[in-house]
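just leaving the lab so this will be short. what follows is a protein written twice so to speak, once as letters and once as structure tokens for the fold. can you read through it and tell me how you think this chain folds. anything you notice is useful, everything is just below:
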Amino acid sequence: MGRLLGILVLVVLASSTQANSLWQVTKGKQQFYLAGTIHLLSPDDYPLPASYEQALSESRQLILETPLDQLESPEGISLLLQRNRYPDGESLLQHLSPTLAGQLSEFCQQHQLPLQQISRFKPAFAALMLTSTQLQQQGATAPGVDKYLMQQASQKTIPHLGFETVEQHLAVLDKLNQQGAELLIQSTLQDLHSSTQDFVAMKQAWRQGNVQVLEQLFLSDLLKFPALYQILIVERNQAWLQKLPTLLNNKPSYIAVGTLHLVGKDGLLQALQQQGYQIRQVQ
């Protein structure tokens, strides 16, 4: 399985003269920036490349995967927990084989993670808890790119909106949960054994805008599991592309989504080129 759940923190150092994960996209009167993001970073990953903030200052709106202020509001968090918590008397451990349940318990004990709390949640959310907690222990304690950009947009009074509503965003987790606890938890535990090296490689490729490395390191693993690839990448990219003209509304815009949504044969970069957009990677 490799880095399957690792992509959830991507949906990730070079000098400022190199390329980065930011593209300028134009077609007729339409013009916007398209930036790849990582959802967790370390404090020493800041400042971002100067081009990220320069592009924001030239834009009249910021478009994220989903409005983070709504997702992280008390109402959004309550809905997230409600949708992903097992009913009383049911536990994630009951949906795992005895062997995998033991491996999860051992991993949590070794890394001082709260097994009792994690096991109250369905597999996709539990996997996110395991991944984010592990990365935070390794120093990923700073806001991700998308949250940072949202904060900067608010300071500049630039409105922000999302491709997905909170409900649509949570529906992605619902679909992942339906793929089975054994698959998601087993892959996550495999990922976390090499998470430090993977996280460093992810951030370096992101900082350099190296789409080939990102595709080879992370997307190739996901392609081995077509149902998960469809849920996480293909379905969402197609839905976003359909919404794009309406959201842009001929306004200079800044779009920031997880970097893996940009790369590969079903990525936004190739899809936009096929639709006649001119794409230039920003230096």
